Target: DUF7848 domain-containing protein
Amino acid sequence: MSADSSLHRGRYRPIEWTLSAIPTMVVRHVGRCLSCGERSADTVDPDDAQLWCLRHAGMTQHSSYELSAFQYFNATITDPAVGGTTPPQT
Ligand SMILES: [Zn+2]
Model:
């Protein structure tokens, strides 16, 4: 048995997918300490993530942070050739 025997072989035609934000899921914010890797709970308020960084700095003297935001998406097939549908409007 060859190492790649589990790979599916055959013609592959890419189909069209679309990403759309999940309407009920708002953007979340998180702070992370670059010194120790600890991170805040994710929050809807970016100020809360920054406040966590300041509190962590006060407790640990760690001085480098990353603030990031993330959002949840649905992937939907929109290719008419395979019966795709229009993604829901937000
Ligand atoms: Zn830290």
The two ends are 50 Å apart (CA to CA). Residues 26-82 form one domain. The chain has a mean pLDDT of 87. The chain is about 15% helix and 25% strand.
